Every structure is written in structure tokens, then in C-alpha cells.
Amino acid sequence: MDVVSSPDPATPADLAARYQRGDFLFTTAQRALLAQGTIRTVTETDPRRLASVIPGVLAETGAPLAVGVLPFDTGPDTKVPGYLVVPRTVHRSEGAPSLPREVLPAPVRVRAVPSPSQHMEAVRSAVAALASRELRKAVLARALDLEFDSPVPAESIVRNLAVGNPRHFTYAAELPGGRSLVGATPELLLRRTGRTVFSSPHAGSMPRSADPVTDRANGEALRTSRKDQLEHAVVIDYVVEALRPFCRSLDVPAGPELVTTPAIWHLRTPITGELADPDVTALDLAAALHPTPAICGTPTDEARELVQELEPFDRDYYAGAVGWVDAAGDGEWAVAIRCAEIASTSMRLYAGGGIVPASDPQAELDETTAKFRTLLTAMGLEDLAGV
Ligand SMILES: C=C(O[C@@H]1C=C(C(=O)O)C=C[C@H]1O)C(=O)O
Q1: Is 38 helix (H, G, I), strand (E, B) or coil?
Q2: Span 229-240, mean pLDDT?
Q3: Sorted alphabetically, which InterPro entries does this protein's record hold (predicted)?
Q4: 241-270 pLDDT per residue, tens
Q5: Pocket test for ligand 1, best of 371, 373, 374, 376 (most atoms within 8 A of CB)
Q6: 193: which of 173, 209, 274, 311 lies 20 to 30 Å off by Cα?
């Protein structure tokens, strides 16, 4: 048997230090998971079908878990598949990694896709479309394309992300075609631990500020913003309705809490449920929940259509889901935001924000700029945040 799932004496820092492109790394404040090598890959555009074949694949291979990604677009016409890997070795360790910061080379070219003014125009179009198409919310994103004169140092980026965002979920996953997805997201689509399912939708954002007075004021403005409360409520309604059929009880707080990442203030609502059927796996639940209105909109199909009309790129795995599922059905799936897709010497960063009727184009642009900071800070490129 090839599979090693070792109670490893390695620390989370050791696991992050061992990460190499092609591996899967998932670190949280509580633990780190490093999966290396490939026994089998499973590729499937229908996420529910993907979820249904994984238990059989794990039983057949004797592997303890599968790791991977779901794309943003899981609709019936998608060309981008869910991509799961049954790894050869799995190492887990308790705690968050602590490592020295690594210095990275600077890119030789940077391009915003679309340009900032085009993004603001798209926000205006989205606001108009919300009214004419009876949508409650749509999430619009933009991208930053970076080119380097040598291979992108994915390993250093991932380690800096983990060190800079120790309370969140830092991830690195292999994508089809030898590309990699790396990021550090605060948002957990869901965790399944036995019969307990936990989801922490985030929606509603304000940039952090280096000035403590402005920073606090931004947080207060978010807490009291009716526009952001609405943006948030749309997500919670959806997640509760999506989880309800699977749960015999659900605990939903009356209102959101204010939380931070190093770059952003957010509204978040932690939701806990007890599963009615213990055979429903973490990946079944991820397939049922994704895409939430936190990253797509409401109603889902119409919002996705509008997003695809207004964004001049394919989201691919940005705003998808990234995580793992084990043979018992437990697992964790994070919302794949604050991320970049890395090819050989180039990478694309993505950032988006929810658009509701009261959205202001300049504020939406500023929000995406702040969201790019998660990646840019890890790359020592804070100065690029204004692009
Ligand atoms: C879409 C992104 O983030 C999502 C959108 C949010 C918002 O609109 O307020 C907040 C958190 C995330 O669910 C992103 O970071 O790219």
C-alpha cells in the first residue's frame, strides 16, 4: 500500500516548508494538511457526480482522503471541471505555521483586466441589470495579470500567505494543465465533522486602513451599512435554504458579526447544523452549497449569466471551492477567493465584490483593490494595490 497518512512529528511550519508546486497544502489556525503525489485524479464537470464517485475511489485505493478544487462555474454548460486528486502521501500537523518571510522577485509586467474604469462601468451595468432582470445581487470581479522573467515562486507565495494570514485558510492546489491555485481566504464554505456541519459565509466588506482611526471608522461604517446588511442577508438566506434539507437542526445567529482579515473588514454569520443523514459527505455538501451568493449572486443562474456577460475573462477556479474530503465523509471546503492562478512565468490575481442596487462604482473598485492586497502583500508588492 502506497498511502501514508502519518501522525507526523512535523510542525505546520515544516509542512509549509515542504510544499512544492503540484502538492496540495491547506493550513488553518488549528492545523496544516500537506498532500503529495498522485494515485489517481478524478475530473468531472458535475460536482454532485464528482462527490458521488469519491467514496468509491477512496475505498478502492485505500487512500485516507481526496483533495482538490471545484471551479466557479458548475452550471450545465461549464467547460471547467472539478478536479480531485487522491494523493500518495498525507501529512497533518496541529497548529498554524510560523516561518520567516521570503523575498520574491518583482514582476516585469502588470496589467489590470479590465481596466479600473472599465470595472466601474461594469458595476454601473450590473446595477442597471439588477433592476431590469429582477436580480437581488450579482458579484463582479476583476483580475491583475502579472508576468515574471522566471518561473513564479509559488512556494514562497504560499508560505508568505500562511504566515501573513494565520487565522484564515491558506491553500495551494494543483489545477488541470499543470497550473496552481494559491490563496488565503477567510471564508469557509463548510466543514463537516461527523454529524456537525459548519459554514461561515462572509459578505459585506470595507477596506482596512493603516490609520487606526480610519480603520475603526471603516469597521463601524460596515456594521451599520444597510447596503452591506442586505448583501449579507441574501447570502445567509441562500446558505440556510441550501443546508436545511440536509440538517435536522440548524443554528443561525440573528445577525452577522464584524470580523477582519489583514486587508478587509467583513460581515460574517457562523452557521452550525446537525446532519440528518451521516452518509452525506463534506463534498456532497460543497456541491449542494456552491456557488453561494457571496461569490455569484441571486438567483444563481441569472446572476452567473450576468457575471459571464460583464466580466471579460473566465473565472476558472477563482470563486470556486478548495478543500479535502476523507473516507469517513469529513472535510473542509473553503471559498477560493483572495487567490491567484499560477502558470509558468505568469499569474492572474482575482478580486470581486457583491453588487446590489445601492452599490457605488468607486467604492466597489476600492473594495477589489483592497482584496488584491492579500496576494500582493504576500508577494511584497503592496505598492501595486492601486493598479
Ligand atoms: C468575491 C470576493 O469576496 C466575496 C465577496 C464579499 C463582498 O462582496 O463583500 C465578501 C466576501 C466574499 O464572500 C473576493 O474576495 O474576490
Answers
A1: coil
A2: 97
A3: ADC_synthase (IPR005801), Chorismate_C (IPR015890), IsoChor_synthase (IPR004561)
A4: 999 999 999 999 999 999 999 999 999 999
A5: 371
A6: 173
Of the listed ranges 45-49, 95-99, 147-151, 262-266, the least confidently predicted one is 95-99
Distance in Å, CA 313 to ligand 1 centroid: 18
Ligand 1 centre distance from Cα of residue 296 (Å): 9
Phi then psi dihedrals of residue 12, to 5 deg:
-55, -35
Reported as a single tens digit per residue, the pLDDT across 346-372 is 999 999 999 999 999 999 999 999 999
Cα of 38 to ligand 1 centre, how many Å?
A: 32
Q: Would you tell me the crossing angle of helices 300-310 and 116-133 to the nearest 10 degrees?
A: 150
Q: Give the domain ranges of the chain.
A: 12-98+107-194+278-384
Average pLDDT estimate for 223-240: 97
Of 2 and 322, the one with more pLDDT: 322
CA-CA distance, 351 to 339, in Å (whole number)? 8
Please tell me the distance from the alpha carbon of residue 323 to that of residue 82, in angstroms, as a whole number.
11
Amino acid found at 221: A
Q: Which residues does 60 contact at the CB level (< 8 Å), separation at least 6? A: none
- In this structure, the residue with its CA closest to atom 10 of ligand 1 is 203
pLDDT score recorded for residue 1: 31
pLDDT at res. 386: 65
Binding-site residues, ligand 1, Cβ < 6 A = 139, 141, 187, 202-205, 266, 294-295, 319, 337-338, 350-354, 371
Query: Number of helices and strands (H, E) in the chain?
Result: 9, 23
Strand, helix or coil for residue 373: helix
Q: Point out the ligand 1 atom lying closest to the alpha carbon of residue 228.
A: 9
Q: How far is CA 309 from the centre of its chain?
A: 22
**Residue of minimum CA distance from atom 1 in ligand 1:** 352
Q: Which three cell numbers stand for residue 349?
A: 490575481
Among the four given CATH numbers 3.60.120.10, 3.90.1170.50, 3.40.640.10, 3.40.50.970, the one describing domain 12-98+107-194+278-384: 3.60.120.10
